[in-house]
Amino acid sequence: MSINFREEIKDLQAYKPGKPIEDVKREYGLDEVIKLASNENPLGCSPKAIEAIKKACDNLALYPDGNATLLKEKIAEKLNIKPSQVLPSSGSDEMIDQISKTFIDKGDEIIMADITFPRYIATAKMMGGTPVIVPLKDWAYDLEGMLEAITDKTKIIWLCNPNNPTGTMFTKEKLINFLDKVPRDIVVVYDEAYNEYVTRDDYPKNSIELLDDYPNIIIMRTFSKVYGLASLRVGYTMASEEIISNINKIRGPFNVNTLAQVAAIASLEDDDFLRKSYELNKEGKEYLYKEFDSMGLKYAPSETNHIFVNVNKNGQEVFVELQKKGMIIRPMQDTWIRVSIGTMDQNKKFIKLLKEVI
Question: Which superfamily does 7-44+271-357 belong to?
Answer without folding.
Answer: Aspartate Aminotransferase, domain 1 (3.90.1150.10)
